[in-house]
Amino acid sequence: MYLPIIGEQALVLYELLWSLSLDDNNRLKLHKHYELQSMLNMGTSEISDSRKRLEAVNLLASLVSKKAPESLVYALQKPLSATEFLKTDILSILLLGKVGDDTYQQIVSRLVIPHPDLGEVTNVSASLLDVFQIPKNLIKNIPGTVNDAKRAVNQNSQSVKMSQLEPNRSSFDFELLLEMLDNSYVDLISVKAARNLILSEHLLYGIDEIEMSKLIQRATNLSTDQLNEKQLKFLIANDFKQASIKPQPVNKPVASESALSADNQRVNQKTQQLIKICQTTAPMVFLEQIKKQKDGIVTEGEQRVLRDLINYRKFSNEVINMMVYTILVTEKQSTLIKALTVTIADNWAQHHVVDAASAIAYLQKRGDDKKKMAGKRYNNSRRINVKETLPDWAKEQPQKKSSQPAQTKISQAEKKAIQEKLAKFRKQK
Questions:
Q1: Where is this region: Disordered (predicted)?
Q2: Number of domains in the chain
């Protein structure tokens, strides 16, 4: 079930790391990344991308040791069971978006095995203590060895932190949503039960309370007044493909306020407007607006790229929007190319870009650095040209020196010939 979300390369990386941990007897052992590259036939960027996908779905944790900060410790997590996977809304939404409604229903039907009707029966099975004789004093007073083993197992267990897979809920008023639905035919208990799903959809698509209330009413069974969660997922995914969902405020990190106040002094009004739009628009809506301005459409590949960025859990929505703007507007690309997007994301993460303002500041600094480097290369090329070009006097001087000896030889010959003629003339007299 993880495969459609993380991709084949990430799954192969997970299996390789798992086999290495078994070979190392689950002990810390140093391995080179070159070893992974050669065994998987992947480049560093592909391994990094696969690693982040595993981290996003909680299959892998990357740790940095204080004793050896230059090394990464990979801690593998056990996959969720099929039941736990489907109960996790964010994973179910991603799976539905990858495989489609028909395949998703087939997966669920294979997992839900109906129990046969046994009729009226009585359980006559033997209990544990009926078969095995255990002293009562040991049951009341558990031996210390058993308790020590229980503590060791509990400390070593890799439990999945579901909070890591849930969105930030500060920008969506769930109580307001319930008030909107209070006078409708929708059973509010079923809406409260779908709280996590509703908040996850809000994070991915930027749906506000008003639009969400309309979608919930459409996804409610009119016979039972119960909200159909699967139908709600389908409606949201289908509506996004056909029409824009109205932009609305989304998560805004507190860290952006200080960076914005500093950068506002040197950015113009147009840049400030861009920052505001990035802060108040959901990533998928932002992408669709730009593609409409370019007379294009949002492709399924672009939606996958955007989902991957969101699943990294490393960037705020405004940073993701700035990446989209940089690629489609600044770089003038026609689509969100996966390789380019991942490269920019990795570069921004390394340079600690936390909001739209710091992204613009980083891009400006990088542009200034490129201009300085271009100026240095130009000056160096000018100095090299001067050394290679000879001045005119250096070219002409040898010609002048070579002509003077030739003139001297001619005048001496003429003088000798005249003297010989004079001597001959005198003898004749």
A1: 385-415
A2: 4
